[in-house]
Design brief:
The protein is α/β, with parallel strands linked by helices. Helices cover about 55% and strands about 15% of the residues. The protein has a five-stranded mixed β-sheet with strand order 3-2-1-4-5.
């Protein structure tokens, strides 16, 4: 499977394409950063990111896109810009029918380094080691994009299997509940059905002495 990892941002948007093989084998295909001038109009900056992402999607033809999920930050303006850039990427992928999955920073760190609290230097070092890179991806946004792609390749199959198992369990629970409801309804009908007298001659009336009249 080939995945495009995206570390969204207005000033720098990291892009990384990684191929996944058997087991946990991964191979770097391409890495880069889209830059937009901070003094440019917001719409133009988003257009620049969109155009470059479209080019990467056409050139490398990934089967899925992994985007870093934005969390609330002290700098609201930065958080909004990051979210807008991520939305542009998701839209471009959706137009091609590609699945888009958002991964949290801690998920990415845990997948790549084994610790959800790893710093950027640790993430970059593990990315270089996993992908056998001789040159460190620069800036950090590029390394983060590769880490996102690796995270998706390793976590998504597990997530899909878990979702399928949960769906099967839910279906079994619904079927079991339906059987219980049907059994309860049948039992209720049986309890309300009057007992019929056995077929035969109706007993004759008796007089005060007990003899038949």
């Amino acid at each position: 499977m080939r995945v495009l990892g995206v570390d969204p941002g207005l000033t720098r948007c990291g892009l990384g394409v990684v191929d996944g093989g058997r087991g946990r084998a991964v191979r770097a295909v391409a890495v880069g950063v889209v830059r937009t001038p901070a003094d440019s109009d917001l719409a133009q900056r988003l257009l620049g990111i969109a155009d470059e992402v479209e080019t990467w999607l056409d050139r490398y033809k990934p089967e899925a896109v992994a985007v870093e999920r934005v969390f609330a930050q002290h700098n609201v303006r930065t958080a909004m810009g990051t979210a807008q850039a991520g939305g542009v990427v998701a839209l471009a992928a959706a137009r091609r029918g590609l699945p888009v999955v958002f991964h949290t920073p801690s998920e990415v760190k845990a997948a790549v380094t084994g610790s959800g609290r790893a710093d950027k230097a640790q993430v970059t070092g593990m990315v270089m080691r996993l992908l056998s890179l001789e040159v460190k991806p620069h800036p950090a946004d590029a390394a983060d994009a590769l880490a996102l792609a690796i995270c998706h390749l390793w976590r998504e199959p597990m997530r899909v299997r878990l979702a399928e198992a949960e769906a099967r369990a839910a279906e079994l629970a619904r079927a079991h509940k339906a059987r219980l409801a049907a059994a309860a309804k049948q039992a209720g009908v049986g309890a309300r059905t009057p007992v019929r007298r056995a077929a035969g001659r109706t007993p004759s009336k008796l007089d005060d002495t007990g003899a038949p009249r």
